[in-house]
Amino acid sequence: MNRAELGEWPKGFRYVDDFTFFFNTREKAERALAIIIKCVSAYELQINASKTKIVEVRELVQESWKYSLKKLTVSAKRRQQKDDIHHYFEMLFSLESRFKDESLVKYGLKQLSSTIVKKSNWAIAEAYLLKCGYGFPNTLQVITQIFATYHRYGYPLNMNALRNFSQNLLGSAAAANYHSETAWLLWLCKELSIHLDAPLILEVLQMESSICSLIALDLINSDLVDGEVDIAVLAGLPVTEQALKGNNWLLAYEGGRRQWLGNTDLTFIKADPCFEALFNADVSFYDTDARLPAIFQVKVAAAQAVDFDSDEVIDSDFEFDSMDEEYFDSAAPDEEEEDDPNEDAGGLAVNPETPDDF
Q1: What is the pTM of this model?
Q2: Residue 327 has pLDDT above 50, yes or no
Q3: Greater model confidence, 80 or 6
Q4: What whole-number distance in Å separates Cα of residue 39 and Cα of residue 18?
Q5: Cα 213 to the chain's mean position, in Å?
């Protein structure tokens, strides 16, 4: 944002790529929004109008969906848990429909991750997870971590449904050049050893994304791609010294040193003194053995064999990943500090969310 045009930095806060700013009047908020649009357009970007709004602060201090979600519980008892899972997702989708906040479902899944789903209820939870992935692509990272975790503990995942899920979403994500969604879908396939069709991988390799291309090439070399992929026809997979100096240097170096790009020698890497030094030092930017951290792990002191389908509360036998709990403060509504945003910020707020192509 241009500080000179605004006269001062606005008060506000940021979480990852979401920004909220506070102003004393609507006029100031509208002026700031115009400046933001002007600034991002200088980088050939656009503000997503559907995700950007000016709201009065009194709307922000009303009961948030955060507290509605925090009130929901999922029982450890198998029969009750089954009903609770249905109720949890019904409430989650209802709140999303009401608040129209793309972070809501993602946060709801993270909150649910602190409860271990019993094996006999897994099919229900799995169906809802897939529904979330289809409807809310920003949840794919969380969904991938959840599926990977339960897979490691031997849960009966529906691999046919997961393959259809991955193929369907990958086709649209790759065509739209959505790098993050594509990367997480590919990683889901890597974690679960899901096979993908060669034409789909070819679409991914034609994207301008070194990360997506490397994961796709990893899948090919792990025999997880059905059919032949002709690497030689892809102009986007260069094996020249010049390629090491361009935007796809990561793909050129990492794919080249592994001979994933159809190259038979490493001359183009060794011809560049900087990349030759990296190569000689055995520096790598991609780990084929990497796996996502589990959302829960058995404690050392826990029983050696945990029954994932008992009616007992087994959560105490596990250590849970925080799953970005700092996204919200953990205080209950009546325990929050009396820090009224109106005191300094005034009566209006503008929330320009980052456009999809950031």
Answers
A1: 0.75
A2: no
A3: 80
A4: 16
A5: 18
